Amino acid sequence: MKPLRITDPYAVPGRYRKAQLHCHTTNSDGTHSPRQLAERYRTAGYTFVVFTDHGRVTACEDLNDGAFLALPGVETAIGRPFGPLGPHLGRLGAPGPLHVRGAQPCIDATVAAGGVVSLHHPGWTGNLWTGGWSVAEMVRLRGYHLIEVSNHHSHSPADVQRWAAVLARRGPVAPVGAAAVDDLHRDRDFNTGWVMVKTEAVTGEAFLRALRGLAVYASTGPSAEFVARDGAIRCATDAVQVRFIDARGATRYLGTGPEAVYEPQGDEGFVRVECAGRSGGSAWSQAFWVSGPGDPPGLRLPEEQSIISP
Questions:
Q1: What is the pTM assigned to this prediction?
Q2: Domains of the chain by range and CATH?
Q3: Bridge partners, residue 150, by sequence
Q4: Which residues form a coiled coil (predicted)?
């Protein structure tokens, strides 16, 4: 059997640092001031936090040093049919307000300014049932990097399947990553979902570069390290169950911690890893795209083979 090529998003230098990508302060509908919230995340072991108040860029650099960094951001409602209705997206590292309307123009303007875009809570039924992102629209949009698969404030268990369906349809040319977040408004939302970002330094540039490269995994509890080595995908974790899932949604191997190993066969398209923790939390890797020598990486599924409806 010819050796397979496995594209590993974690094959970059650095170490994992805890980050929060979605939280609200008293500048919108949160209960903590920016400084109070930054202090709380720092005390809880976070290295990065992005404020995402509604319609307002929040910045708070009071506590920034070589070990902690709070970055500006904003949660923008895509007026549908008019604001404040419609789905939300996060403009991470956003330097200022937007002066455009519509999802794709918002993404384009954010990326042009050096920011990273995350599509928020795709299964959300709020905003008078206008708040969700359909799979078809997430496939069509270009330039964003992340989709929330776990959001405590607007919990939708099917968001993992929505993300996987988008991955399968878009293919490796335009991959998109999974994120878990607090979407903090009240104390009960705190530290319920986060990402572990692999960076060499505690700088905004290093942080945003890791998000763009998807050198990040999402978690609501378990810790993990994922790597492709010696023709296999390996997961070292404190979780009790490790599931290796292909582009069609099939479980190819079910293992256990502290280490699980899967050797791809070549027909997976991609392999993603889900870890189930002892207390019910989960962790999600990004996609490892699988291809044979000389073949383009990954497998792009046609729409009729999607694992979830649009």
A1: 0.94
A2: 5-301 (3.20.20.140)
A3: 180
A4: none
